[in-house]
Amino acid sequence: MSDVRQEGRMDLDTLCINTIRTISIDAIEKAKSGHPGAPMGMAPAAYVLWTRVMKHNPANPGWLDRDRFVLSGGHASMLLYSLLYLTGYDLDLEDIKNFRQLNSKTPGHPEFGITPGVETTTGPLGQGFANAVGMAMAEQHLAARFNRDGAHIVDHHTYMMCGDGDMMEGISSEAASLAGHLGLGKLICMYDDNRISIEGRTDITFTENVAQRFEAYNWHVQSVADGNDIDAVQTALEAAKAELRKPSLIVLRTQIAYGSPNKQGSADAHGAPLGAAEACLTKECLGCPQDEQFCVPDSVLQRCRLTARKGAQAEAVWQQNFEGYRKANPGLTNQWVDAVSGFVPAGWDAGLPTYMPEDGPIATRAASGQVLNACAEAIPTLIGGSADLAPSNKTYLTCSGEYQIDACQQRNIRFGVREHAMGGIMNGMFLHHGIRPYGGTFLVFADYMRPAIRLASLMNLAVIYVFTHDSVAVGEDGPTHQPVEQLASLRAIPGLTVIRPADANETAEAWRKAIQTCGPVALILSRQKLPVLDRSIYAPADQLARGAYTLAPANGKPDALLIASGSEVYLALEARKQLAEKQVDVSVVNMASWELFEKNADSYKEMILPPSVACRVAIEAGHSMGWERYAGIDGTLININQFGTSAPGAQALAHLGFTVDNVVEKTLALVRRKLKTAQ
Ligand SMILES: Cc1ncc(C[n+]2csc(CCOP(=O)(O)OP(=O)(O)O)c2C)c(N)n1
Prior knowledge:
Blueprint: H1 12-31, H2 37-53, E1 68-71, H3 77-87, H4 93-97, H5 127-146, E2 158-163, H6 164-168, H7 170-182, E3 187-193, E4 196-197, E5 200-201, H8 210-216, E6 220-224, H9 230-242, E7 248-253, H10 276-286, H11 298-328, H12 330-341, E8 362-363, H13 364-378, E9 382-386, H14 390-393, E10 412-414, H15 419-432, E11 436-442, H16 450-459, E12 464-468, H17 486-491, E13 497-499, H18 504-516, E14 521-524, E15 529-530, E16 548-552, E17 560-564, H19 568-581, E18 586-591, H20 594-598, H21 602-608, E19 616-619, H22 628-631, E20 636-638, H23 649-655, H24 660-678
Parallel strand pairs: 1-2, 2-3, 3-7, 6-7, 9-10, 9-11, 11-12, 12-14, 13-14, 17-18, 17-19, 19-20
Antiparallel strand pairs: 4-5, 8-15, 16-18
Helix pairs in contact: 1-2, 1-3, 1-10, 1-11, 2-3, 2-9, 5-7, 5-15, 7-15, 11-12, 13-18, 15-16, 19-24
The protein binds thiamine diphosphate.
């Protein structure tokens, strides 16, 4: 270990770097938990990036043309908090001292919306990597759309730091592959190659040549042999910036817990405080006062706060440039303001299609494609694609072309067969501002992107998922492709709105609701054709916005409620007709979205599901988990609690009990049972 004291007088850069290290050590020590190793190893590179290279204004973390910074290895959060505090963001030393405490601005892992300057929530390894790719794609797209000769209002980089764990996760490979294909020249990744993770040295499991892997992905790759050599780091960063046609990877050879005499280079320093004695030894070794905690010399603060001055100047220059742009391009400026403020043009939904029963049956995925295209005509920020299933998901926009390296103003993204990266990239695009992303795949493969959906929900990002092929009615592809538990598992994610429309008109309403929702929405759509419900007989489709509504009321007090969603609504309506012939009078409740329904006042909920009607049958071609809430303890559940089967869709459905006859039979049995108990 090189001992900085032996190098003579400590220069100010080194003192700043060591301060990042020591306040990270102290905060983790005080919290009695945290991850000191990575902040100590990456402090020099982070310091160079934040104070010499990155364009950012600590006084205005929302400046639209700032460089973005993503700490993909979110466990190293103290590195980020130290940088935010030292460079002058709205975070003080007290916040650092409150690391990991209830309601602090310095939570265990960086959380978007809690700490000024934190661009995204990271912690599940690899997600930040994909977020950064999404941010860089957003920049690339918006630059192509809005920049004009001599006036570049969108011109910033996305920097990301990641570690071995991020590099091991599949999502980073998916995202890196797409980033290389798209030639994201303004994406720069600094890889903390410290060769240590939780279980020890990475060579117990991770021995590939990461640099070569990224070269194969079409990245520009550099190595810095000593992560403490700040001039070398800066040179590499400048070279990375000069490469405009490829994303850049800088492999930084570092030492985890640099400066700790007994823990440097050891996995012990990854995820536990150094311990009081080792903290003192480390400070001594770094040439810092041993007995002082949270020591921040004035000279350090002054030096780091120069960043704030430089940042304010940079923003002022941009603002001046923007004023010129505004004068020269007033129309475009309005579009830009709309885009970055997430503004949806008035009357955007005037062109949404409506459907008549005589148009014939249409799959809700097909209707979704038409509605999406109508939305896209009116909302230029609506951009997205599918994980190689556009022809099935109907996600292609006919009003635009294909987004490729030399056509990045186009709006159809080919995500490739990379569902997980698609989810993380959508999050990054939305976080960037200026884009309303959507992404499609089969419902069954929502599992492949679930971690990203969870984070979209945690951050409350208004992304839209188009999940088609929504039940065993998928048919011949069999149980591998037939979702069963996915609806229940998506509904379990707090903050995610799941909408399963029953016909084409409800699909239009579902899109309308999705566009209006300030959070993630999953649209659940059928592969098979469904009749267009006759709204002159049934309640209007716009009632879908309430989540659940009475589609077909009973004539008097209902003998039973049939509560269904999506493709099973039609089944319930047919069953209602047959039950009427048997003098059983039922209401059909269309339960398109639990989350939207739960937002209603109790009075509305009780009107739709009257407590006095205990005979309830819930019908959905998915797992029953949770349906008891609406069917009641005595209700009948017609669901699927097993995997599907390989057969034509209608046969698979019938095999699993999704026939009008079965619904009628089960309803009759329930009504009779209730009558008996009442006697
Ligand atoms: C998806 C996911 N799996 C597991 C973890 C738990 N975890 C946190 S850090 C870490 C090891 C990361 O190693 P590395 O990136 O080398 O970080 P360093 O040891 O350098 O701090 C693991 C497995 C996680 N945060 N996310």
